[in-house]
TrEMBL record:
UniProt KW keywords: 2Fe-2S, Iron, Iron-sulfur, Metal-binding, Oxidoreductase
Keyword check for Nucleotide-binding: no
Domain of life: Bacteria
Domain 2Fe-2S ferredoxin-type: 3-80
Name of the protein described by the UniProt record: (2Fe-2S)-binding protein
Molecular function GO labels: 2 iron, 2 sulfur cluster binding; metal ion binding; oxidoreductase activity, acting on the aldehyde or oxo group of donors
Key word Protein biosynthesis present: no
Originating organism: Pararhizobium mangrovi
Amino acid sequence: MTLSIHLTVNGAAQDVALDDPRVTLLDLLRERLHLTGTKKGCDRGQCGACTVLVDGRRVNSCLTLAASLEGAEVLTIEGVARGDELHPVQAAFIANDGFQCGYCTPGQIMSAIGLISEGRLDGDPERVREGMSGNLCRCGAYAGITNAVLEAEA
Ligand code: FES
């Protein structure tokens, strides 16, 4: 049975036919919509590389069924810049060396955007670390990531 869903991805309406109701949002983004900025790390909700915003809230797209997203608004790393102008969180990651290899960076940035929008960091590095704890960085760029989030939040 084919299931049709209608959602918005980075501001563009998408009508998607799903032959398999088990398709995740991560696979929908990467394999069907060719939005490969969202990364697959563990594929089991442990690393945060696949973080995107759904209706403004952070989700692990590897744990989110595409079939559950009828009418949802999805924002991925491809949708955060405005033309040539980086999102302030992107700029802060560059200014603070908030990455090394860069694989986790799209998920880190999406998580940071969601976290900042929650409005409860108050410039506190410990709150940033706790709020970003679902996003792992194997290079260990955590100091730069924390500083980037603090700068972007200020
Ligand atoms: Fe989704 Fe690791 S790929 S949390």
